[in-house]
Queue: 2 jobs
Job 1
Amino acid sequence: MSRVAVLKGGRSLERQVSLASGARVEDALERLGHEVVGIDVGGDLFTALHDCAPDVAFIAMHGPGGEDGTVQELLEVLGIPYTGSGVSASARCADKVLAKHALRDAGLPTPDWVAFTDTAFRDLGAGQALDAIEQRLDFPLVVKPVGQGSAIGIKFARSAQEVPAAILAAFSYDPKVMIERFVAGRELAAGVLSGRAGGAQALPIVEAIARDRDFYDFTARYDIGRTRFACPADLDAALAARVQEVALAAYELLGCYGFARVDMILAADGPQILELNTIPGLTGTSTLPQAADAAGIDFDELVGRTVELALTRARSTV
Ligand SMILES: Nc1ncnc2c1ncn2[C@@H]1O[C@H](COP(=O)(O)OP(=O)(O)O)[C@@H](O)[C@H]1O
Ligand SMILES: [Mg+2]
């Protein structure tokens, strides 16, 4: 058995979800017989890790700081094995635009988009290109901060008048903003797990179904009771296999490890990848644990296997 530091909380806007994920992971690790040290991540992380000298760190953090390679890099410096994707995959997936470039270059489906930084907008007059951008992508458009999660800062623009305010709102979360083509369709999440013997497996697909069917009010998904999840999603076998194939290809392309959740919209012509979450929610209502469960992997096994994979990677890179 190992001494496992569970890193949770942190300063991102997804702090509360992370605390819930972390608490649930701690319970599972205790049931598995590990010695568990919970760390609410803050300015004293280095000291806390040094004092507890864990065999492995379970990173149960979401959003900037925890999911984007920052904490991963610190753990590398300290020589502490950690769960989930490495620094490079974490950084690339946390930046939705870098991930989308990689997907598009590899021929994997992702909605067309344009991205720019606040510097381009303020100092280089990128605002004047808005007309051209709007024409290329067509309405409705989705405006998002590049590095956030949990739908934070995302706005839909139905017309040109709504774009500037949506962009300004997104800039308040991130110096990089993207404008993406809106894709109508069913909302799917595909979990992927690395295998103990190498290779990765796509889990059964989960569909998020909003109770009131307002396309634009996607925040419904995050209000308890306004969304229900179908797991496995009601898809015919060939389509489900195609969605899993796309998710697995994206996971491998970006070099993810341990686990990840690929968010997609199922459009009329097939799945379109929105993003990859390298540390998906692990709370009682999160979709990755539900999907693992549907594949016969209960939460304790999911957590145990994720820790084992972290130790395996550390051994193979020594
Ligand atoms: N291009 C798009 N077309 C339609 N809906 C979108 C699009 N982009 C985002 N959404 C909606 O917003 C939600 C969050 O977007 P996503 O890119 O997954 O960012 P995050 O989950 O990191 O906030 C999606 O699950 C979907 O409901
Ligand atoms: Mg998402």
Job 2
Amino acid sequence: MAKRFENKHVLITGAARGIGFEIACQFAKEGAVLSLLDFSEALLEEAVAQLQLLTSVVHSYHVDISVRADVDLAVLTAENRQPIDVLINNAGIAFETPFLQIEEQEWKKILDVNLTGMFYVSQSVCRHMAIRKKGVVVNMSSKNGLDGEFGYAHYNASKAGVIMLTKTMALELAHLNIRVNAVCPGYIQTPLSETIDSKAFVDNFVKSYIPMNRVGKPNEIAPLFLFLSSEESSFMTGQILIADGGQLAGQKPGQSLIENI
Ligand SMILES: NC(=O)c1ccc[n+]([C@@H]2O[C@H](COP(=O)([O-])OP(=O)(O)OC[C@H]3O[C@@H](n4cnc5c(N)ncnc54)[C@H](O)[C@@H]3O)[C@@H](O)[C@H]2O)c1
């Protein structure tokens, strides 16, 4: 069977671990040429070694996406190797701090990576796509971009910003044949979530808020990025796909006022 992304050049940010790495694995299995951008050189090396077992061409760029000059240089180098067909804006960070205690530096750090960094990478790549009048972008937002959560004012604000960035890019770039969509995962078990939350917290969170009674896995999120990057979604732009185990559907049955459900 033909592979869906055979020889397509896919650039993925934050691809060295977690959901970004799983997205890279799934594109690799579909024959993509990969460019991985990540902040961590050590993790990148490991990721490249594993991905080379799945696909023939994997390039890596050790880049902090919140540094514009480094982003532009990496994107230009990647473009010169092969025009970029698909951009996956996945890189992101999170800290848990109550609103009244957030220091200016921490606020700026989250916004710089999650929103401004995404803007830098998107503008840099889309300027090349615009010349070719062809391209696809998929942005990583979050369930927290649509609904508040205690302790994450800066993260929630950054992910809500990603949704509006996605919609506005979709509007402005549609005539250039560039589609832009976003994915909003709920709670996904990754190194990021494991560094923030204890097992007891996660168990209680699941019990209280997630109708499917479990957290998600990266391999349940990555396929949405491939779908939105593929011809299967050719008439979709400016859309937000949510995968959260039912969290945003409403109250959990356990919280229902109707008895015996
Ligand atoms: N895990 C969840 O529950 C969850 C839920 C919704 C959305 N998300 C979003 O999914 C994305 C990936 O999350 P994850 O849980 O896989 O995290 P993770 O920490 O496991 O992986 C994030 C990757 O991004 C890289 N990165 C961080 N800052 C960077 C920067 N400035 N420049 C370049 N690379 C950088 C890290 O080195 C790492 O490889 C994030 O945008 C996150 O906000 C995660």
